[in-house]
Amino acid sequence: ETGVTQSPTHLIKTRGQQVTLRCSSQSGHNTVSWYQQALGQGPQFIFQYYREEENGRGNFPPRFSGLQFPNYSSELNVNALELDDSALYLCASTRGGRTDTQYFGPGTRLTVL
Amino acid sequence: AQKVTQAQTEISVVEKEDVTLDCVYETRDTTYYLFWYKQPPSGELVFLIRRNSFDEQNEISGRYSWNFQKSTSSFNFTITASQVVDSAVYFCALSEAGKAAGNKLTFGGGTRVLVKP
Question: Collapsing DSSP states into helix, strand and coil, what is residue B71?
Fold first, then answer.
């Protein structure tokens, strides 16, 4: 148990819809990173939030956006869903140092039909 | 750009056999961090080890051991006397220090380990 929680566990959406995924970080952690893991592949970095501001972004289009709240929980929003967005979305938290270990939540499985 | 390669996509062993997972990485930085994570069928990534680029000492933790060789840019992972509970996908990952993008992790494609009774 890492203390990182995510909701919902599973989600089914249709193409063109919008989705919001949520993450609560481990106590004492102020940095949250989001990753997308397609079936059979390694996780891909989407973006990171540090003290409520975006602190780096991977190669994902602007329809992937996020928020971090004062309690360091976070949301990942995806607009105009595409079939290729079907994946496991993983959230990871760290204490905030650039080199700290990231601890992952159980993930949200998103299926886009 | 940084890159992590795990050439073995799947390894199948019989319980009590040893299994070694290969990881080769590419980076231009002199300071970086390497990680191994385990992903059981439940999906959660479980942290196993973190090693910085200045520490080339091998490490052993129970049945797990890691061999870091900077000269060959490799960070291999061995499970000794494998057990059925070791069945999972294992990921090697790299993080570069001092980047504006924070400590993003670059993952390899993973190696699926199947331990048969």
Answer: helix
Alpha helices, DSSP H only, in chain B?
none
Closest CA to B76 of B95, B115, B48, B104: B48
Residues of A in contact with B54 (CB under 8 A): none
**Model pLDDT for residues B18-36, shown as the tens digit of each residue:** 999 999 999 988 888 999 9
| pLDDT tens column, A45-76 | 999 998 888 888 899 999 999 999 988 899 99
B95 DSSP β-pair partners? B33
Looking at the complex, report in whole angstroms how far the Cα of residue A110 sits from the nearest Cα belonging to chain B. Answer: 13
| Whole-Å CA distances, A11 to A77, A88, B117 | 13, 10, 35
